[in-house]
Structures are given as C-alpha cells and as structure tokens.
Amino acid sequence: MRRDTIFYQLFRQSPTLLFDLIDRPPSNAAQYIFDSIEVKETAFRIDGVFVPPNSSGIVYFCEVQFQLDELLYERMLSEISIYTYRQRERFSDWQAVVIYPSRSIEQSQRAVVREILTSGRIIRVYLDELGTVQELPTGLGLMVLTTLEGDAAKAEARRLVGQAQGSRDIINLVSTIVLYKFDTLSRDEVDLMLGIELQQTRVYRDAFAEGEVRGLERGLQQERGLVLKLLNRKLGNIHPEIQARVSSLTIEQIESLGEDLLDFTQMGDLLAWLDTHRL
Predict the structure, then answer these.
(1) I need a surface site. Which of 157, 185, 238, 265 has the fewest CB within 10 A?
(2) What digits encode the pLDDT tens for the residues 228-239?
(3) Fold of 1-129
(4) Phi-psi region of 111 (alpha: psi -120 to 50; beta: other; left: phi over 0)
C-alpha cells in the first residue's frame, strides 16, 4: 500500500520518469498525462496510465508490484482489455511496464502469457538490476531508493538531497519516500536525517502542516482509495455498504487497515476488523 502511494507521487510529480525505464520512449514523452484508472465494473484498478497527447500515440500502462501475485499478468491483461475497449479512440497502440523490486517477486507461472511477454509488449523492470543510486540518473535513483532499507536508505536519501542543489521537486520526491519508509520517526528525526527543513517541502505541508485541511483530505482520500483497491484484489468485489464503512475510517485507522489486510483471507476477516474498530 505504501509503495503504491510512493510511486503514485513519483509519477504524478514527474510523469516522464516512466520513460526513463524503457529503451524507446516516445518523442513527445513530456506531453503525456498520468492518471490512475479504476475499471469500476470489475473492481480493477490500473496503477498508472500514461495517455498520449493525441490519438495517434501509444498509451502506456504501468504496474508497480512489490508483492508476489501469481495472477498478475492475467489481471493486467484483463484490465488493459477493458480499458482499450472503452477508450480505443484515444490511442493507436499500447505497451505496459511492470516495476518489480527484484526477479524473486515476479509471477512464476507464465505459460499462459509467454507469447505476449516474449513479444516485448510488456516490459519488465527489476529495480535491483538497474544499478546503484549513485550510478543512476536522479529519477531512476529515486525509484531504487524505494527498495532500500535502514541505514542504506537513510544515507542515499541524504545524498540525493545534497545533490539536488535546492531543486524543490527532487527534495519533495525524496521526502515523500522517507516519510513513508520511516513513519515511526519523529519530525525532528526526519529533519535531522535529511539535513533539510522538511516542513518547507510540499509533501510535509500536505501531510502535517497545521490548518492545511485540503492537503490532509487529499492525502486521506488517496490512502482510502489504495486500501479499497487492495481489499478488492485480496477479497474480491467489496459490497458498497462495506466500502462506505472503509471510507469513513480516519487516517490512523486506514494506515492500520493497510497493514492488517495483508493477513486477510476472507471477507469475514475484514468484517471482524471493522467490528473490532467499532465502525
């Protein structure tokens, strides 16, 4: 859940990052529009859709997958088929990019989709094979930063802030990653880690600044949407009444549910969790 949020922030702030991952990016990459699309009829959600500025271009689908899913490719193709059926007039062709932390997370049973994988229509990216954060361009280095833990993540985050030369966009992206990866740290500890006044960055204002109700509501709405997306994937279609109960959760409860749902195996687990939290 948290990495979905991180990559949403990365692509929202800099959509061209996707095209740093592929060999032949479109010449008009800077004009692409990024969004996260829900296919409501099936409760599917495509992590990222990069729409070309005109109908003669290629639409790019992006999936960020940090947990093993043995039906990932089948689900992706279902989502893409529905999207292309409903939005066919907006593009001339499609390609998909799947971002993994490593090969060990990739779906192992691939016989059903082997031809389409071999064709190159679905590009698979393994972040741990791109190189070190120091070796990569800043955008790709930020993606690799999401895979690091502990002291290694802290050191690379500080280095990226140091080389940002005051670039607000870069500092915002680094701070986004750090706030999600080290959410147990206090404000002072995060400030000290990065060597910046974090309260001056956009991500901190959105999440923590006093009186920033609009930013807080926007962040909470994104968190709720991501949790509902994961619940639908984990348990199947969620009844609208249950969705309404989840949508009424506070930010603290949403964060807690986002962690606990990984252990859910049936709808009863979700209902029991909601009843326990008196919603």
Answers:
(1) 265
(2) 888 887 788 888
(3) Trna Endonuclease; Chain: A, domain 1 (3.40.1350)
(4) alpha
